[in-house]
Amino acid sequence: MKPIIALATPPLKGALALIRLSGDNVFEITSSMFSKSITGMNQRGLVFGTLSDNGRMIDQVVLLVYPGPATMTGEDVVEISCHGSMVIVEEIIQAFLAKGVVYATRGEFSSRAFYNGKMDLIEAEAVNDLINATTLEAKNVALLSLSGETSKLVAPLKEQISSLLALLEVNIDYPEYTDIEEANGETIVAKCKEIRNNLSSLIKMGEDGKIIRNGIKVAIVGRPNVGKSSLLNALLNEEKAIVSDIPGTTRDIVEGEISVNGIALHLLDTAGIRESDDMIEQLGVQRSEKSIQDADLVILVADGRTGLGEEEHALLKLAEGKKTLVVFNKADLVSEKKEKTIYVSALNKDISALKDAIFAALGLDEKAFVTPSFSNARELGLLRQIDGYLKQEQDDAEMGLTADLLSVNLQAAYNCCRELMGEEPTQDLTDEIFSRFCVGK
Ligand SMILES: Nc1nc2c(ncn2[C@@H]2O[C@H](COP(=O)(O)OP(=O)(O)OP(=O)(O)O)[C@@H](O)[C@H]2O)c(=O)[nH]1
Ligand SMILES: [Mg+2]
User: Which numeric CATH code is attached to 4-115?
Assistant: First the structure.
């Protein structure tokens, strides 16, 4: 494919920068600008020399030469390690563009790797996850996908679906055979249930994996003056939000990031919710209410001395359907504490009970930290689609639909499995199905 170029390191000043090239003729093109020839190199190697543009020296560089197809993209690849000035980077890139190389689009190196069969779609997506990981745990989960561990989960699922499909097909095509299992409604329902059981654990693992990878949004809400901003500051261990004893101090959303047991929490401190004539405060209250809708977890802060009042109940109603934690703050001023209740003192930074409760509220399976999973929206969406087809299959089988009609849902479910890996969804299934049965000669 046409040669592409891109800066692989951040576009900032540094000791070194790395520029990556991939595609047809990259060895020849690079040689035409380099003090040595790398044309025809058939082993990986490292070459030091000078890069010039029309006889004008650009920089002393190290070339990392990777002959295809045993490379990330499957094509010839050159990496130029130059001095980390953006002036040099720009000069090098412009010189290559003048020689017919084009600027790579986002993710183009990974997409070439995918199209050249170097990785499946799940692995390609994992490259992105790996780069975006902000916690060690997120990185580890992405690495499992990159090494193909997640992709391996597809084969057993595909196998289960295609063997059920095969059962239907033989019953359609060879009804006279008496030695094959009969595809009656009961058998199909039972098999669908079995597959859906496995699917539901894959989906749960995927959802947990998604939390580990992306973290969650946490909205801190409550009446004015209960100590929301103090709580944010205590969680962040930083005086980020303004705290005062005047109700209505916070008007806008104040944000911060922390990690609790390896889960990234994106915290939103909000304006205290109350009726107000002040226009700005009203807008703040609207934002608070919206933050509840956007949050994955809502922390409702109340004053430990007064307990829950009308306002708190109204907020709980607003947060209905969300994971919610009710936290009583100002525990240092509370003499009698109720059981099974989360008390904290934001002022004294005594908040460990809340951190434990947040982690528990996520309901993560410990295995999710070390197990490969389908954890991005595309993958989870496809798993849910497969489950939908199997549910339909179950219903259709219960209604007594005939085998030829029943095979439609399974075909669709099977195609989703192929889509998961980025395989052609339309490929003929027959070979795969009939290779399992010795029917006829
Ligand atoms: N004794 C005690 N005082 C606290 C505690 N947490 C906060 N406060 C005090 O309560 C007052 C209000 O705190 P903030 O954190 O500004 O409260 P808020 O909920 O953000 O208030 P608004 O932004 O107005 O909605 C301040 O005077 C804090 O010092 C606590 O745990 N114990
Ligand atoms: Mg505040």
Answer: 3.30.1360.120
User: Can you tell me the distance from the alpha carbon of 226 to that of 309, in angstroms, rounded to the nearest whole number?
Assistant: 12
At position 328, the amino acid (one-letter code) is F
* Residue 339 alpha carbon to ligand 2 centre in Å: 27
Q: Pocket residues for ligand 1 (CB within 6 Å)? A: 222, 224-230, 243-245, 247-250, 271-272, 329-330, 332-333, 345-347
For residue 436, pLDDT beyond 60: no
What was the pLDDT predicted at 131? 86
Q: Kindly report, residue by residue over 348-384, the tens digit of the pLDDT.
A: 999 999 999 999 999 999 999 999 999 888 899 999 9
Nearest Cα residue to 139 out of 212, 239, 234: 212
3-state secondary structure (DSSP) of residue 97: helix
Task: For residue 130, give the 3-state DSSP assignment.
Answer: helix
Say if residues 295 and 268 touch (Cβ distance below 8 Å). Answer: yes
8 Å CB contact between 323 and 297: yes
Query: Looking at ligand 1, which residue's alpha carbon is closest to its atom 27?
Result: 245
On whether the CB atoms of residues 271 and 284 are closer than 8 A, the answer is yes
Residue 431 phi/psi, 5° resolution? Answer: -55, -50
Q: Under CATH, which architecture does the 151-209+372-434 domain have?
A: Up-down Bundle (1.20)
**Ligand 1 centroid – CA 227 distance (Å):** 3
Q: For residues 109 and 103, what is the distance between their CA atoms, to the nearest angstrom?
A: 11
The structural domains of the chain, with segments of one domain joined by +, span 4-115, 151-209+372-434, 214-364
Question: What are 95's two structure tokens?
Answer: 């010189």
Residue 369: both structure tokens together: 């930290």
Cβ count within 10 A of residue 367: 11
Ligand nearest to the CA of 301: 1
CA 264 to chain centre: 13
Amino acid at 102: V
Q: Say which CATH topology domain 214-364 has.
A: Rossmann fold (3.40.50)
**Reading across the β-sheet that carries 297-303, which strands appear in turn?**
254-260, 263-269, 216-222, 297-303, 323-329, 342-343
Q: Which whole-number Å values give the CA distances from 399 to 20, 85, 182, 394, in the listed order?
A: 58, 70, 17, 9
Enter the pTM of the model. Answer: 0.80
Are 320 and 310 within 8 A, CB to CB? no
